[in-house]
Amino acid sequence: MTDVMTNEQVAKEYIDDVFKKLKQKYAFELEFLQAVEEIFLSLVPVFAQNPEYIHHNILARIVEPDRIISFRVAWQDDNNNVQVNRGYRVQFNNVLGPYKGGIRFHPTVNESIMKFLAFEQILKNALTGQPIGGAKGGSDFNPKGKSDAEIMRFCQAFMTELYHYIGPDRDVPAGDIGVGAREIGYMWGQYKRIRGQFEQGVLTGKKPGYGGSLGRKEATGYGLVYFVSEMLHDANLSFINKTVVVSGSGNVAIYAIEKAQHFGAKVVACSDSNGYIYDPNGLDLKAVKEIKEVKGARISTYLNYHPEATYFEDCSKIWTVPCDIALPCATQNEINGDAARTLVENGVKLVAEGANMPSDLEAINIFLDAGILFGPAKAANAGGVAVSALEMAQNSSRNSWTFNEVDAKLHDIMKAIFTESKEAAEKYGYPNNLVVGSNIAGFTKVANGMIAEGVY
């Protein structure tokens, strides 16, 4: 007599088998495998209750990108020397809408990082409720130390290769690390010259007045804090008089600091890749903005404004600063197990991710096991891509909304993401686990769309 497997056992066996094959196939793509594993761990109850997902082999299909585009980017520096970089665009899934995701210029860019970011983008974009699929792109080009003319020439060369594969109803890139409104403008200008058409909606993150949306610069940071506000409210807490630490000092960090301060928090630390500053009196945001947005200087310059503050080398040590709320807004895997344990020992009550995958799996498990409120990136930092989708809508309608209109829509989207994630977690037996909830809420939207489309 043979044992009959339960639905949960069947689901777990299926998920384990798909992941085993994926690890064998992409053994060296560690970031991609980490992102996939984190999501797979959440999906056993979903597949147990929805066996049609197994029948349609959704998991094996969703982890393979529709296509990966890799190309050479040759450009000329200011000394008339020809430089060569590698460019990527990973078009992962367009079931819910045209591919959508940022472009990153950073020396660490490789295919694994592009795939992990694009894979995360699928579910993040689904959570926003906007009609957008998941993609990501970039290059190992390092903009630091480059002149404006060099950056312009690189952006033009990059777009000369990329333009073949994008379009307002096909794939709509945006900015990411190393790519802001300036770089988007250079790429948009080159696209327009090549195409000979005014397809304004092909890129988002443009400057306001030039097809860009008001509120886009602030969107990821503001959206993060709106999401955290919902988490706090659900736990009968608030930002008022809470001590906050924010890693990073780019757009996400700066506008997370701004909105957290607006909600009554005291933000005491932020960082850049060299180190971090600690100001027990609360950060002077005006000084941080001037240092980073105007002067483009290192965060250590803050001491010129506030000598009573302290600067520490080694940005990773920022998580030793005691706080009630930690907002990692710098880069992937910046919080490891040791940093997570330190945060918990120092009394952190809530951690929410402003960057993409800033906490590794060990850190996430430490937070969840300790009962810390945890907001995962795909839900908490979805504000940026949400407003990018709103920019697409404005471009399509040849319209421009006010800052307050965009901000109100962003606030509503972040509240909806929290509610959907919380309800999904409760439905599948993981109450208050927003990691599981956001994974399930995003995944089921995409999976249902894939079933509706049929096998192709």
Automatic annotation (TrEMBL):
Q: Which InterPro entries match?
A: Aminoacid_DH-like_N_sf, Glu/Leu/Phe/Val/Trp_DH, Glu/Leu/Phe/Val/Trp_DH_C, Glu/Leu/Phe/Val/Trp_DH_dimer, Glu_DH, Glu_Leu_Phe_Val_DH, NAD(P)-bd_dom_sf, NAD_bind_Glu_DH
- Residue positions annotated to bind substrate are K100, Q121, K124, G175, S388
A GO cellular component term found in this entry reads: cytosol
Does the keyword Oxidoreductase belong to this entry?
A: yes
Matches recorded under Gene3D superfamilies: Glutamate Dehydrogenase, chain A, domain 3 (1.10.285.10), Leucine Dehydrogenase, chain A, domain 1 (3.40.50.10860), NAD(P)-binding Rossmann-like Domain (3.40.50.720)
Q: Site described as Important for catalysis, positions?
A: D176
Enumerate the residues binding NAD(+): T220, N251
Q: Organism's domain of life? A: Bacteria
Q: Active-site residues?
A: K136 (proton donor)
Q: How does it assemble?
A: Homohexamer.
The protein's matches in PANTHER family, at most eight in alphabetical order, are given as: NADP-SPECIFIC GLUTAMATE DEHYDROGENASE 1-RELATED
Alphabetical list of NCBIfam families matching this protein: PRK09414.1 (NF006929)
Q: What is this protein called?
A: Glutamate dehydrogenase
